[in-house]
Amino acid sequence: MRQLLLIAALVFVPLVTPAYGKTSHYEAVVAEPFLELHTGPGRGFPVFHVVDKGEQIAVVKRRTDWFQVRTRTGIEGWVSLDKMAGTLDTAGGPSALDDATADDFAGRRWEMALAFGDLDGASVISVNGAYRLTRNLSAELQLGDLSGGFSDGWLTTVALVHQPFPEWRVSPFAALGTGVIHLQPKATLVSAEDRTDQVGQVGLGARIKVSKRFMFRAEYNSYLTFTSRDNNEELDEWKAGFAFFF
Amino acid sequence: MESRLRVLLLTGLMAATSGCSLFGRDEPPMEDVSASAPVISPEVERRKIRTPKIDTENFELGPYWGLLSVEDFGTASLLGARAKYHVTESLFLEGTFGRSAKLGKTSGEVLGNFDLLGPDRTYQYYDLSVGYKLLPGETFIGSRWAFNSALYVVGGAGQTSLGPDDQFTLTFGAGYQVLATDWLALDFGVRDHLFDVDFTSGENKGTHNIELTLGINFFF
C-alpha cells in the first residue's frame, strides 16, 4: 500500500508542481488611491472592478499597452500602461513596467514595414525588415512582389540605410543597396523570355511618427539593372506604407 | 498717527532682522557638518533593476473558412489563414492567404466549350492590410453572458492568382471579432477584392470579388 502511494506521489507530484511554478508572475502594489480593472485590453471595455491602495496584484500578461492583472482574490482584469505607472513593485520601488524606450525611437532595434507603390509602371507590394546597427545606421532586407500590365516578377534587395536624425518626428533616410530582380512577361502577351538581373539601389525616404511604435513611411528608389544587353536599365520606384518597431 | 504707525513698524522690522541675525549666529556654519566624519557610513546596496518578463500576446493567427464570389466564375468555398499583429489597442496589421475550391464555368466557357483558366481552376490570393478597431466593447448574449468584441475595418493590397496571370489587388473590408476567452477569438469578416482582368473579355475590366468568412484566431 505504501509503495503504491509512493509511486502515485512520484507520478503526480511532477504534474502538480509546474502549476505552482507557473504563478511566479511579476507582482505590483497599488500606490494610487485605486486602480481600475477593465474587462478587456482597450479603452472601450468597461471598468468592472476597483483595487484599493496597498493591495497586491500579479501581472499575468501584456497585450499592446495593456496588462492583464490578477488580484489576491483571483479577479482578473486589464489595466493600461499609464495606470500601471501608478503602482510600486513589492520592494516599494517605482514600477518596473514603464517602457523605458517607449518614446525613444532611437532605442528600438527591429523594424518592419509594408509598402505599396509603383515600380516603372508595375504595381509593387513590399515587406521590409530592418535591424538597427547603430543610432543612425540600419541593415534592411526588402522583398517585393511586382505585377504590371506587361510582366510579373519579384525583387529582393539588401541595403544599408542611414538616418541622420532618428529623433525627428519626420525623419529622412537614405539607402544604398544591391539585389536581384526577376521579371516574367505576362502569358497573354507574345512571349518574351524570363529574366533575372542584378540591381543596384539608391533610395531616399522619410519616416513620419504617428504613435509610439507606428509610423508612415514613404520612399523613392532608383534601381540600376545590370543586364547582359547593350544598355543598363534604370527603374524608378515610388512607394508609401506603414512601419512599426518591435 | 501715521508717523507713529511707521515708527512702530520700523521698530518691529528692526527687531525681526536683528532676531534673524541672532538666530543665524546661533546656528553652526554649514561647512563644519560636512567636514566632520559621518556617524554612519552608507553601505546601501544598489538595487538591481530588471525589466520583468511578462508574456506579451500581440500576435493572432488562425484558419478561416468561407464563400468567395468570383466575378464571372460563380461562388466557391474558400479556405485560408490570417495573421494579425496588434501595434496598439486599436491599430493592427494583417496578412492573409487564401485559396478557393474549384471555380465554376463562365457562360462563354459552357457554350463555347473551352477553358479560360487552364488546369488550375482556383482563385488564390494574399494580401497585407492595416486595420482599425472602430467599436471595441462587449457583446451580450442573454443576461448572463458578456463577451469582449470589436468591429473593425481593414484596407490593403495584395496579389491574386487567377487564370494565366497574377493581378495586383486592392482589398477592403470589415469584420466583427468576438473573444470567447482571452486567447481565442471568433472572426466574422467581409472583404472585397478589386482587380483588373483582361483574359475574360480581351480588354481590361475591373472586377469585384466578395468573400464572407468565419475564422478562429489564437492569440500568442
Tell me what the structure shows.
The complex is a heterodimer of chains A (246) and B (220). With 246 residues, chain A is mostly beta strands. In chain A, 10% of the residues lie in helices and 57% in strands. Chain A has helices at 2-21, 81-84, and strands spanning 26-30, 34-38, 47-52, 56-63, 66-71, 76-80, 87-89, 110-119, 122-132, 137-147, 151-162, 170-185, 195-209, 214-226, 233-245. Chain B has helices at residues 2-26, 30-35, 107-112; strands at residues 55-56, 59-70, 74-86, 91-100, 124-141, 145-162, 165-179, 184-197, 205-219. The N and C termini of chain B lie far apart (86 Å). The model of chain B is unreliable at 19-25 (pLDDT under 50). By secondary structure, chain B is an alpha+beta fold. Chains A and B meet through strand 4, strand 5 and strand 9 of A and strand 1, strand 5, strand 6 and strand 7 of B.
What's the quick description here?
The complex is a heterodimer of chains A (246) and B (220). Chain A has 246 residues and is mainly beta.
How do the helices and strands follow one another from N- to C-terminus of chain A? HEEEEEEHEEEEEEEEE
What share of the residues of chain A does DSSP label as strand, in percent?
over 45%
Oligomer: heterodimer
| Structure class of chain A | mainly beta
Find the structural class of chain B using helix and strand composition: alpha+beta
The percent range for helix content of chain A is under 10%
Biggest sheet: strand arrangement of chain B: 2-3-4-5-6-7-8-9
Return the average pLDDT of chain B rounded to an integer.
82
| Amount of helix of chain B | 10-25%
Number of alpha- plus pi-helical segments of chain A? 2
| Shape by Cα distribution of chain A | elongated
Unreliable stretches covering 5 or more consecutive residues of chain A: 11-22
Estimated share of beta-strand residues of chain B: over 45%
Please list the strands of the largest sheet of chain A in the order they lie side by side: 8-9-10-11-12-13-14-15
Q: Based on CA inertia axes, which overall geometry of chain B fits?
A: elongated
| End-to-end gap of chain A | 57 Å
